Amino acid sequence: MKRLINRHPGRVGGVALAMLPFVLALVAYTIASSQRLAENPNDPVLPSLITLTESFLRLATEQSRRTGEVLLWLDTGASLTRLGLGVALAAAAGLLVGILNGSLPYARRTFSPFVTAVAMIPPLAVLPILFIAFGVGELAKVMLIVFGIAPFIMRDLQQRVEELPREQLIKAQTLGASTWQIVLRVVLPQTLPRLIDATRLSLGAAWLFLIASEAIAATEGLGYRIFLVRRYLDMETILPYVAWITLLAFLIDLTLRGVNRWLFPWYAGRSARS
Amino acid sequence: MSRNQHPLRQRLTHLCAAAALFSTAALPLAASADERDSFRIAWSIYVGWMPWDFGEAEGIVDKWADKYDIEIDVVQINDYIESINLYTAGSFDGVTLTNMDALTIPAASGVDTTALIAGDFSDGNDGLVLKGTDDLADVEGQRIHLVELSVSHYLLARALDSVGLSERDVQVVNTADADIVGAFRSDDVRAAVAWNPQLGEIRNHEDAHVVFDSSDIPGEIIDLLGVRTEVLEEHPELGKALTGAWYEIMDVMSGDDAAGEAARTAMAEAAGTDLAGYEAQLASTTFFYDPAEAVDFVTSEQPAETMENVRQFAYKHGLLGERAPSPDFVGIELADGSTLGDEANVQLRFTDRFMRKAAEGEL
Question: Structure pTM?
Answer without folding.
Answer: 0.81
